[in-house]
Design brief:
With 66 residues, the protein is an all-alpha fold. The protein contains three helices and no strands. InterPro entries: P-loop_NTPase.
């Protein structure tokens, strides 16, 4: 659908490519759940993410800025 372009397989692949290119020192890349949530954010959805300390929540607001 028109409003969900980042949630598509292609959109998710682009998110991963951007992170690899812009943050080369992050050798492990994004976790699958991070890609999913970032896609929701980029598609304009409201998100509430609750996960343990150190799981990578900061990437959820940092990556969309890239």
């Amino acid at each position: 659908s028109r409003g969900r372009k980042w949630q598509t397989e292609e959109g998710r692949a682009i998110i991963k490519q951007i992170v690899v290119k812009k943050v080369p020192q992050w050798t492990g890349g994004l976790r699958d759940w991070q890609v999913t949530v970032i896609a929701w954010i980029l598609d304009g959805e409201d998100v509430l993410c609750i996960t343990a300390t150190g799981d990578g929540k900061s990437a959820l607001f940092a990556v969309p800025i890239l």
